[in-house]
Amino acid sequence: MTNNPISQISDEEIVSMTLRERSTFGFIVERYEAKLRRYIERLGVRDKDDQMDVLQEVFIKAYKNLNSFDIQMSFSAWIYRIAHNEAISWYRKHNVRPEGHLIADSSEVLNLIKSKEEAADVVFDQNINAEEVNKALLRIDEKYRQILTLRYFEHMEYDEISDVLKIPVGSVGTLIHRGKKQLLNELNLDSIRI
User: Fold this and answer.
1) Is the overall model pTM greater than 0.90, yes or no?
2) Four-point Cα dihedral 79, 83, 84, 86, nearest 10
3) Which residue, 60, 120, 126, 183, has most beta carbons within 10 Å?
4) For the chain, how far is it from start to end, CA to CA, in angstroms?
C-alpha cells in the first residue's frame, strides 16, 4: 500500500490536471518513466544513455501533444505508441538493428504462452532460461517480437495493443498466436500445441 495520493488518480484525471496546469506533467513522468524505459529496452535499445535519450523524446512529444490526446484511447496505449515510434525512429536515425536485452522474466512468459490445457499433457523443459528465450525472441519476426512484448511483458490487453500498434483488434490475436508459434519453434518446442 502506498501513501502517494497520485497513485490513486487515473491516467485520464492526471491528463486533465496537466491540461489545466502544465506543472503536473511530472506526475505522468513519475508514473511512466520506469515502465517506458523497460519497454524501450525490451524493444532493443540496450545502451542506458540511448534509452534515456529515447525516453526524453517520448516525454517531450507527449508534453507537446497532450492537447491532441484522444480520450477514446487509453492514455497508456497513447504514450506506449509514442515510445514505440520513438524507438523505431532512433533505430532509423542510428542505422542500427535492435540489440535486445536479457529479459529476466522470460520463464514467466513461456508459462503464459503455453495454454492451460496442455500443461498437464506436456512436460515442459525447465532448463530453458531467460537468455535462451531472449535470443529466440530476437530471432523471430519483429512484428511478433513487438506484439509478444506488449502482451506478455507489458501485460497489455488486446485493445491496448491494437491502439499502440495501430492494427485491428482481430489482428492482435492472430499475430499473438503466430508469434507464440514462431517463438516455440525457435526454442525447438514446436511440438507444444498453442
Assistant:
1) no
2) 130
3) 183
4) 37
Give residue 115's identity as a one-letter amino acid code: S
Task: Please give the Cα distance from 47 to 115 (Å, whole number).
Answer: 35
- The class (CATH top level) of 106-186 is mainly alpha
- Nearest of 151, 24, 125, 136 to residue 160 by alpha carbon: 151
**52-68 pLDDT per residue, tens:** 999 999 999 999 999 98
pLDDT for res 82: 94
Contacts of 27 (CB under 8 A, 6+ apart): 6, 9, 14, 17, 18
Q: Where are the domains of the chain?
A: 8-94, 106-186
Cβ atoms < 10 Å from Cβ of 32: 21
3-state secondary structure the chain: CCCCHHHHCCHHHHHHHHHHCHHHHHHHHHHHHHHHHHHHHHCCCCCHHHHHHHHHHHHHHHHHHHHHCCCCCCHHHHHHHHHHHHHHHHHHHHCCCCCCCCCCCHHHHHHHHCCHHHHCCCCCCCCCCHHHHHHHHHHCCHHHHHHHHHHHHCCCCHHHHHHHHCCCHHHHHHHHHHHHHHHHHHCCCCCCCC
**Fold match between domain 8-94 and domain 106-186:** no
Domain 8-94's class?
mainly alpha
Separation between Cα atoms, residue 184 and residue 65, nearest integer Å: 39
